[in-house]
Amino acid sequence: MMTNTGNRVTQGQFSFLPDLTDVQITAQIKYALQNRWAVSVEYTDDPHPRNTYWEMYGNPMFDLKDPAGILLEINGCRKTFPNHYIRVMAFNSTRGVESPAMSFIVNRPETEPGFGLRRQEVDGRAIRYTVHSYATDNPENERY
Amino acid sequence: MGQDTNLGDIQTKIGDPGIDLGELFRDSHIREVLDQLDRELVGLKPVKTRIHEIAALLLVDRARKQIGLTGGAPSLHMCFSGNPGTGKTTVALRMAEILHRLGYLRQGHLVAVTRDDLVGQYIGHTAPKTKEVLKKAMGGVLFIDEAYYLYRPENERDYGQEAIEILLQVMENQRDDLVVILAGYKDRMDRFFQSNPGMSSRIAHHIDFPDYSVDELLEIAELMLTGLQYRLSAEARQTLGAYIARRITRPNFANARSLRNALDRARLRQANRLFEAATPVSVDALATIEADDLLKSRVFEDEAPPQSQKN
Which pLDDT does position B294 carry in this prediction? Predict the structure, then answer.
């Protein structure tokens, strides 16, 4: 049974919605900046849900006042990695919180092959399940 | 202020569709900023005129947008040239606020940088550094002090050129995201533009900051002291006039900045005088700077002018 018909990776915010437009992205970033969260742009070509740490594009951006600067970086990243997953993260550095406050995907490959379920028989009749991304069958940078 | 009549004229000319520029003007609360500018900045006639012109332009632009006339956003990159202490940074700060109120800038903050903040120390260091500064300035004003240091013709491997190129690119492509203001001494700025014609053509407004006259400096001094809750005694006011007249001819005269330093030293001497008097001091005495505090300045010593900056 396939519940995610578009085969789209659903991670972070807004991932069940159609792709955000630049105007919508700008509005989200503006909200993050209003809360004084540091925004960064990250990319990866391994969409496994446990792949938590993506590569950072450029330096983290502190002390920005306006979303235009971040949009500039997003577009730079899109140009460099047109077929990677790119997400925007907002980090809340308040003492005691210190964790990402927002995370949403702003770019995804044209075709997403999706995930397969792998079964491993262990200890007699017991079965272990694991999720495998078809994309990762190919080496890095040749996945999409 | 000539502003009102200007706007009134335009309003009658527009006539029929009935966009009330006066109302737009009031809504933007630009009046307070312009008034404050007139109040707090002494002299600087050409600067104020230009700011009023820019304000009028942006207001009309906004009105045009309301009735559906679209013209691209005007380029507002500027160059402030003038001697030290003529108020370039102060005006840049005000400019950021004015442009914000007029809806040209989204945030209206000012990021002040010099060569060090833009140019890196090794290959590949400059671009990220410059970009970071530019990103910080987005939505506001990027103020580059002593911009001519970016270009060092004597060293062809200097990274300044790289910073200039990135700057030019952003100035052109993201015109509605930030305003770049270059500042520096007149002659060196001119030479800078001569060797960077691309930069010169992308800057729409070249504004000259004239030197202050003695009277203007005196007025500035009183404004400064009022801000600090001091005042001059009548005698001290005259002495200050004489002081300024002498100080102007000395080397290293930096207009309002020299004046502020002089006043700071006068405050120092006043404090010392009150302290040494060892009698109870009145509120009046605490707030008043006397002629004596100024007369002790080295500028009044009639020997040959010392070359050092202390005076």
Answer: 86
